[in-house]
User: What shape does this take?
Amino acid sequence: MNKTIKVAIDGPSSSGKSTIAKLIAKHYKFTYIDSGSIYRAITYIALENKLINKSFVNSSVLIEILKKTSIDFSFNKKNQNTISVDGTELENKIRTSEISSLVSFIAEKNEIREYVVKIQKRISKNKSVVMDGRDIGSVVFPNADVKFYVDASLLTRSKRRWIELSKTEQDLSLEVVKNDLLKRDTNDTNREFSPLVKPINSITISTDNLSIGEVLDKMIKIIDQKLKIK
Ligand code: CDP
Assistant: This one.
């Protein structure tokens, strides 16, 4: 395959997009890029520098810090393509409920989004990638070869996220997780710049009543068909 392929996967929190994106990348030997981890890493940097709380983001100072910061992806010991900031792998530190509750305030800032889109394009250059996020098929790769919108009900998504977070945050209730997802969905969908939308020409996959294997089969069939047609 000479031409590089872009597979864009958008959808709300915990719809199953990252699990499926990783499996699709593995199947086709493409690179998986988790674009949400860039927004999470920036939220981490903002917290470390005391530039964010629930009502305020000092984005002008944050942007100055980001200009001097190197955000990159590299393969770790488990062969996962994970984010690092100035050479330090951040994966475990960016999945906390604190970061989750603040990240959409970072993601709504246009100047930060422009900075992130540059990173997304740089790390995808000359590569076949599967990238997941909120604006991949609409803004980052509007001409992606295949675009998916992966969805599930709020309750299904909350249960998934709660099971995941309960491993490290035992006191967390399902209700708190559900409220956080709802708030994030509302912010992500209603923000002014690059809101979460079903991209034009995207195929919607509802994962409520499907196993991971079933979702994967369905999406692989669609990708195979699309790539043959091209
Ligand atoms: O893991 P989860 O699906 O909850 O979220 P994520 O993919 O890690 O993304 C975290 C947050 O980053 C989202 O709630 C969005 O606010 C923001 N984001 C975005 O605005 N655009 C993207 N392409 C990816 C994430």
